[in-house]
Amino acid sequence: MKKFIKQFQKTSNLAKLDLIIKFLIAFSGIALTIMHFVDPVTWHKLPSYLVTIILPFIPDLIAKINLHTSTKLRLAYSSFLVIAMVLGIDLDWYKTLIIFGSPSYDKIVHTLSGVFSAFLAKEILDNVYDGKDSAIKSTSTSSTSAVKIKKYSTAFAFLFIVSFVFFIAAAWECFEFSYDQLCGGHMQELNAPGVGDTMGDIISAGIGGIIFAFFLRKK
């Protein structure tokens, strides 16, 4: 315990905030699981509650195979879990939050998912894509040398980020459909005519992603 406290004190403020949010999410999953066994009629989403306990620590599991992410991205992931998983699914805000006479929380979550996907795309771009070599002269008191850095065009970055956002939005729709079918959730308006809800979700995510792609496109 003392070792954990010392490590916690040495971390940055963002890392501390992320850790606190992660444990709060896991605790909410544990609390809701207990409430399920007390009142299974009201708290009937046991699979969702159990998943809520595990999801916050996915970045830590990924880090075990040397796929590290930035603190900002982990914090964005944890924050999105609160919005989408805890509030949206576990507490059923997808169905119960009514704005302007209709359930609107789904569109809010999808817009924010576009923002999160844009940050994730930027992280992938910075860490995986090599870009082009750009020589920069480094001058010191004794010598002058050329230092090569990796650089990509802002147009390519914008295209990659926006494409990634729409890919994640489509994948998320597949997850929503699967969850509703298997766990009896309300993430999709399955009774809505046509594909209006699905397309609205993808467009909402796209809008959020496109806006933030303008700010994230530069190296």
Q: Nutshell version of this structure?
A:
The protein contains 9 helices and 4 strands; from the N terminus they run ααααααββαββαα. It has 219 residues and is mainly alpha-helical.
Structure description:
- With 219 residues, this protein is mainly α.
- The model has no long low-confidence stretch (mean pLDDT 80).
- A two-stranded antiparallel sheet has the order 1-2. It has a two-stranded antiparallel sheet with strand order 3-4.
- It is flat and about 60 Å long.
- The longest helix has 30 residues, at 154-183.
- It has helices spanning 2-10, 13-38, 46-54, 58-63, 71-90, 93-96, 105-127, 154-183, 196-216, and strands at residues 98-99, 102-103, 132-139, 144-151.
Chain-wise SSE layout:
Blueprint: H1 2-10, H2 13-38, H3 46-54, H4 58-63, H5 71-90, H6 93-96, E1 98-99, E2 102-103, H7 105-127, E3 132-139, E4 144-151, H8 154-183, H9 196-216
Attribute tags:
mainly alpha, 2 domains, two-stranded antiparallel sheet, single chain, 219 residues
The major pleated sheet works out as: 2 strands, antiparallel
Taking pLDDT < 50 over at least 5 consecutive residues as the criterion, the unreliable ranges are: none
Q: Return Rg in Å.
A: 21 Å
Order of helices and strands: HHHHHHEEHEEHH
Share in β-strands: 5-15%
Structural class by helix and strand composition: mainly alpha
Shape: flat
Tell me the strand order in the biggest sheet. 1-2
Distance between the termini: 40 Å
Helix content: 55-70%
